[in-house]
Amino acid sequence: MSILVDGETKVICQGITGKAGAFHTARCLEYGTKVVGGVSPGKGGTQSEHGLPVFNTCHDAIAATGADVSMIFVPAPFAVDAGMEAADAGCSLIVLITEGIPTLDMVRLRKYLDEKGVLMVGPNCPGVITPGNCKVGIMPGYIHKPWEDGCKCVGIISRSGTLTYEAVWQCTTRGIAQSTCVGIGGDPVKGLNFVELLEMFENDGQTDAMIIIGEIGGTDEEEAAKYIERHVTKPVVAFIAGRTAPPGKRMGHAGAIISGGEGTAASKIAAMKEAGVAVAESPAAIGETVAGLL
Amino acid sequence: MKVHEYQARELLAEAGVPVPKSYVATTVDQAAAAFDKIGGKAVVKAQVFAGGRGKAGFVKLCDTAEQVRQAATFMLSNRMVSPQTGSEGVEVKKLLVADAVDIESEYYVAVVMDRAKNTAVVMVSQEGGVEIEIVAKEKPGAIIKRWLHPHLGLMSFQCAQLVAGLGFTDKEQAKAAAKVIRGLVNVFHKYDCALAEINPLVRTKSGEILAIDAKMNFDDNAVFRHKRLQEMFDPSGENPMELRAKEHNLSYIPLDGNIGCLVNGAGLAMSTMDLIKLHGGEPANFLDVGGSVTAEEATEAFRIVLSDPKVKGILVNIFGGIAKCDTIAEALIAAAREIGFDVPVVVRLEGTNVERAHELLKEAAIPQLITATDLTDAANKVCAQVA
Fold first, then answer.
1. Using one digit for the tens of pLDDT, what is the confidence trace for B21-65?
2. What 3-state DSSP class applies to A230?
3. Which end of chain A has fewer CB atoms < 10 Å from its terminal CB, N or C?
């Protein structure tokens, strides 16, 4: 088992003829993901460089391929419309890779998706991967270790990209597999968050423990801590980035900012510890901390 | 992105929010002329981004044209130093000369993004004129909040509840307050604000409702679609190195320490700073070179880090995913050739094309280069180098 995506998941790529969309579709196909087509308005009826059918609309793409997930590389000014189109066409999950989407656009998209019951990962994120089965995003596939019988397995939820790769690699080199890794993205308004994903991992038979990678800004980690205390029975390891970040400064991610005294690493770490979560003090100690719990 | 007080007033006035009569002045003569046009008392305010203006003497209440001249002369010929500016202070180029109204009571009205609720919230309070964070801590019940529907915006009943929360019972004043709230919400949406705040909103002795001071922050991701905001942009409010980095798709923030950092990914960049601190060092900067960095951009990143004279050592931490380790290695070699390193550079590479990167670095044989096997090793080595 896994969460969100598996070997049966059929994926379309919105923006498949763009540079990033084409490049990453190729990497996903190499990994074994069932990418079944792409959308690029005005290019319907042609084939992508990967030999996949290209459609003008998501509706056409889904009618022809039966895809259930859309991976979106559409540029920021148009990405939200692309997401709404995917939802209206019947996708059950949207993986929005695009960075730099205006927050008010995200507010509108999030509401639209909630009303339709469509899930979203992102935006401004590396995507989601179920190692060995399905990679929907831009993460390097080879660093992951697929689940196999008898091995220990973690689920990873992260607001960061490369820091997730770091954690994945520390697990893989210690022989710990990953059930699914979800990069929820670095924006203030987003789709799936820690709490929903913790619930999914808690209910996933393959997942033995969870890793949460948070960072400064907002109160998502505090919410996660409250949830863990009440509802999670599996071991959870957390790392929170940004202890040395100055207040009032946006640290790369749109959502990584301490404002009005809210969103500090100290507050998040304290909440996690209070909830019984094992907090890795160093980013180098994430794998080791998980190994100690399994 | 932020704008000056006079610009925020302009946006509010256009949205139908009443503001006191005011003029922008860049010279002493203009300031004096503004006073004459206003008639009566006026307040002269330096237009700078840093706070602490009042205590620094850069907000002055004036009764005569002569006082305005004195205040304007002082503000335009001295740099303003406040706890927010650092000892070097900031230059004042523009003044706002505004009608000084007789205030009876002060209120707070703001629209801000509430990320926990995935939508914006309108907040009002009768505790105006003080920092809202203090009110929130000491008297949380004194703040009334209504969340905006993402598609429908502010509903009339919500607006009425907010007006009631401000305590306006006089019909005309309640109507004026409703207009202020609606106007502020409109500005928030129209210009993609992250924060739009009027503090204080006042009722004057003559019963007028006026926005005295306003603060606005805009969503950097949305500035591309607002020509008006692009025109209002004042680079003096930004760190020049941060701007230079931005032009090269780099995200750079200078800090106080002596270990320069060059990392790919915001989360990894932040945790590299944390790691340095954990090992007893102090980071000199945050620097995220991004996911699809080119060799030229990475070389520029080295230039920026090395331009900080405090830097006594550099830690390069790359987990190659989309960004490839060999690209960074090439940039490192180019930077070594072009600018030369006069400080030790500890390099930790992992991920895509890491073998090729190590080969390149070995061939280049840069004497200041120290390779590290993992994160902890890298942190230990760079901290030992600058100790």
1. 999 999 999 999 999 999 889 999 999 988 888 889 999 999 999
2. helix
3. N
CA distances from B360 to B301, B328, B350 (A): 19, 10, 14
- Rounded CA separation B89/B106 (Å): 30
Give the Cα-Cα-Cα angle B253, B254, B256 (nearest 5 degrees): 140
Cis bond leading into B200, ω under 30°?
yes
How much is the CA Rg of chain A, to the nearest whole Å? 18
**B282 vs B287: CA distance, rounded Å:** 14
Closest CB from A188, A243, A251 relative to B277: A243
Strands of the sheet containing A69-72, edge to edge, are A54-55, A34-39, A10-14, A69-72, A93-96, A119-121
CB pairs under 8 A between A and B: 177
User: 3-state DSSP call for residue A153?
Assistant: strand
DSSP B111-138: EEEETTTTEEEEEEES--SS-HHHHHHH
Q: Which residues of chain A have a CB within 8 Å of the CB of B292? A: 20
Contact B116 A215 (CB under 8 A): no
CATH 3.40.462.10 fits B240-386, yes or no: no
Q: CA-to-CA distance for B119 and B184, rounded, in angstroms?
A: 16
Q: Provide the 3-class DSSP secondary structure of residue B62.
A: strand
Distance CA B36, CA A293 (A): 75
Q: To which residue do tokens 């996690």 refer? A: A272
Whether A103 sits inside 8 A of B265 (CB atoms) is no
The domain covering B21-100 belongs, at the CATH homologous superfamily level, to ATP-grasp fold, A domain (3.30.1490.20)
CATH node for B1-20+102-237: 3.30.470.20
pLDDT tens digit string along B348-368? 999 888 999 999 999 999 889
> Is B351's CB within 8 Å of A169's CB?
yes
This prediction has a pTM of 0.93
Q: How many whole angstroms separate alpha carbon A179 and alpha carbon A198?
A: 13
Average pLDDT over residues B69-81: 95
Distance from CA of B255 to the nearest CA of A (A): 8
A123: cis peptide before it, omega within 30°? yes
Give the start-to-end residue ranges of the domains of chain B: 1-20+102-237, 21-100, 240-386
Sheet strand arrangement including B22-25: B22-25, B95-99, B42-46, B59-62
| ipTM (interface predicted TM) | 0.93
